[in-house]
Structures are given as C-alpha cells and as structure tokens.
Design brief:
By secondary structure, the chain is mainly alpha-helical. It has a domain at about 100-145. Helices cover about 40% and strands about 10% of the residues. The chain has six helices and two strands; from the N terminus they run αβαβαααα. The protein has helices at about 35-50, 70-80, 105, 110-120, 120-130, 135-145, and strands spanning about 60-65, 85-90. It has a two-stranded parallel ribbon. Strand 1 (about 60-65), helix 2 and strand 2 form a beta-alpha-beta unit. Helix 1 (about 35-50) packs parallel to helix 2 (about 70-80). The longest helix is centred in the first third of the chain and has 14 residues, at about 35-50.
C-alpha cells in the first residue's frame, strides 16, 4: 500500500493529494468513492491483531456523505462491527450531492434551513463536550490563542 522506499512522494506517479508515510503509518487515500471504508476496517482489524500497536493505534477513515450510498460503505461498516477493531469512520458533508441527496427536492428551503439551525452537529458536539466537562469557555479561548 506504500510506495517503494526509494521513490519520493513528489514523483508524478501520485495524484495531487495522495500522500502517505510508512514512518508515520499513514496510508494514501483512495480516489474511487467509498473504497477506503472497507480498507480502513481491514486495517483496524490488523491493528487489533498486532500486540505492539493494538493499544496505541487506530484506523481513521474520512469520507463524504455521498459515499454512504455505496456498497463499500455498508460492507466496511459491517466488517468493522463484526470484527471489533480500532476504527474511526468520519462522514463529512462536503456539499456535493447527487440528485437523490438534494434536500430541497423534498422539502421547503425554510424547513431545511431551520433544521440546520436546530440540529447542528457542531452545536450538538459542543453541548456534549460541555456536559461531560471536556470543553468550556476557557478551553475555547486557549485554542483560539494557540491557533
């Protein structure tokens, strides 16, 4: 899954954002939609089976919401849930929808906008962190200063 050791990442064989690092245990991304999901589940399983890495490593997988309609999404999550493994799956709404995902086809614009305000995942996450005392105004100010 990694390039040959003697080849440099800047060579033309890579796509623009397909970076990887064996030293940092960072695999390159996959271009086709959703193929990285079962790969991450398999990698998580391999990490679980490796005694020297099982307690300090996870397989993190980032994908767009459009990938959830692909077979690989369901296959990957089923695999990860069947063989419990340290895998983290993060779906991101990148704003690119196919026609079946266009909320405005089925709902009034005002209803969609109201739902975004009421059911904002960032606001929900903040409230959850605050309720578990893992985030507060002081931590937020420290982060702002740091960034």
């Amino acid at each position: 899954m990694f390039r040959e050791p003697r080849r440099h990442l800047r060579q033309r064989q890579k796509m623009p954002v397909h970076f990887g690092s064996p030293k940092h245990h960072f695999h390159t991304i996959s271009s086709p939609l959703a193929t990285q999901i079962p790969q991450a589940a398999g990698m998580g399983y391999a990490l679980r089976r490796s005694p020297d890495r099982r307690s300090r490593s996870i397989a993190a997988c980032f994908f767009s919401e459009g990938a959830a309609s692909e077979g690989d999404f369901h296959t990957g999550l089923l695999l990860a849930s069947t063989i419990p493994s340290p895998s983290l799956f993060i779906a991101r709404n990148n704003g690119h929808h196919n026609s079946s995902d266009d909320s405005f086809v089925y709902r009034q614009r005002s209803e969609v906008e109201d739902r975004k305000r009421v059911d904002n995942p960032i606001a929900r996450f903040r409230l959850s962190m605050e309720s578990h005392r893992r985030w507060d105004a002081v931590a937020e100010e420290e982060l702002k200063v740091h960034l």
